[in-house]
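lol ok so funny story. i was supposed to be doing the assay writeup but got distracted and ended up predicting the structure for this chain instead. priorities right. anyway since i did it might as well share w the group, maybe its usefull for someone
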Amino acid sequence: MRTGLSRYLLAGILSISPVSLIQADDLPLIANSSSTISLDQEYQLGRTWARMLRGSAPEYGDPLLVNYIDGLLWKIAANSQLQDHRLDLIVLDTPVLNAFAVPGGVVGINAGLFLGAQDEQEFASVIAHELAHLSQRHYAQQLEESRRNTPLLLAGILASILIASADSQAGMAGITSSMAAGQQSSINFTRRNEQEADRIGMLNMVNSGFDPYAMPRMFSRLQRASRFLGQKPPEFLLTHPVTESRIADAENRAGQLTKPAFKQQSYEYQLLKKRVEVHYASDLNQLIKGYQVSASDDQLSAYGLALALIKKGDYDQAEKALAKLPDNLQRHLYIRLTYAELALAAGKHQQALQQMEQLIQLYPDSYPVSQRYAKALSANRQYKKAARILSELSQRFPSNSYIWYELAEAYGLAGNTLGVHEARSEYFLLTGSTDKALRQIDFALREKNLSSSDIARLEERKREAERVREQIKNSL
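and the output, tada:
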């Protein structure tokens, strides 16, 4: 029987049976025996959907931000009830505040979540909520519920998710119309799962060292802000409906948990928040003026000012803004990387390389440091070395499409044609463009002086690409 991917994606946008607050080891394994789909099938379906999403919506390429979210995701996942820890993070380049979880361990975070979450605690609460949906396999419950009731138009919902990545208004209109085809019992079922994800998510937050009150605080603040501004609620509230009773229940549950001891907030989150603010600034000059007013009293605004000036191309003033940061921030990795970014943007390539050579010695395993080091190497025409660094990263982070894209560029500059075709084929496979991936593999097979191991490797990748193409075809 053909299993369509679109049937199983409702949990990623509508999530959803209340349980009493209990210890992690005693949490129920939902849909473990009655589910019509295995964990391995979930994994394959999720990876197929991830390819389609990457090919339909732009990803956020800042390695600092991606690396930070990935670390936070794994910190909470380590204290979750996930049976399958094969997670795949996708960070979308959109200011729309949203997050979602897809069967098979795919977690999507919009960069705009940084604009809505006030601090790391609130940001972590969203991740904990989504991981709870995955661990409880809510999508399997929704599947079984839909089979007992009038089926929802899940194929339309799948298309709406993809559209919403680029056009949230159009996507939500599609989701709304698709939901209208379902019965009220299905909608009530999703609300119960939302409440369960809140409760389990808060428990996992505590076990990860976060304040459980951050979750109801996040929901309540977003709800109040949307009402005060007279705008439609943030996308997250539309796909994760919040009511006063739900917030009250979350606050009550948080009060039953032991709040972790106070710990000083690190600078990472707030520095990244400034990077996102600058990235999505609609009026850069106005943002610069605002930062200039507050920079003397707020060192984070001073950092935002430096970033905004770099984006504007005013490199001298940007360097002066960075130089005014206090010593404790001057030593911070993010600031040191920003100095290198400034040097690269200003065309001071040798200076940037020197800065990155120092950092790679201190942080040899850091993804953002290695990525920026490769950029500095390429800027200084050391293409083969840059390709070697990126090749190592591609082995560590095989589902990071940005790394494969940059690796193909580095191979091209280094004159490695075979490497170009192979890196491009991996990039196209990750973004669901299987025909383009197969074309690149065919180009690679035509290269001269291929070894027997080269041919065997390429033939295996061709078979894999054909399998992926068939999976995507059967999922639509």
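Residues 29 and 287 are 48 Å apart (CA to CA). The mean pLDDT is 82.
back to the writeup now i swear
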